Amino acid sequence: MTGGTGQRPAVHCDGEEYAVRSTHELDQILDRLTAETPADLPRLAELINATGDCLGMVIGADVSLLSFVGSSGDPPYYVSVGDRRVDGLFVFYVYGGHYSELPRRHCVSAGQARETMRVFLETGRLADHLLWEE
Fold first, then answer.
1. CA 80, CA 99: separation in Å to the nearest integer?
2. Out of 58-72, 93-107, 114-128, which region has the weakest mean confidence (pLDDT)?
């Protein structure tokens, strides 16, 4: 999901939008959404910043993954990289019960994902503490 420029940052999840003005507010929103997410149904929450760039984070699982789409909606797209030696798939839900899956090697800790969301909100950039793959 991408948005236009000049908008206020907001978290989007399951068709709902939550305005975000600070990292504290971001944490509160993500905490609430995570608490409402069944452990067997991890889902995507997307932070869209003022320029329309979008960073998605999977919430509700013991691990997370992040995906980035610029405001144009065109490539390049980026996804987080965790342990490259891990096999298997990570399944999560996007919108309206639709699911997606990516190799589990893209999973990072929930703490790393949360810190990356904070950095993105504050700077509009992808955090340097993670590896990213196009």
1. 18
2. 93-107
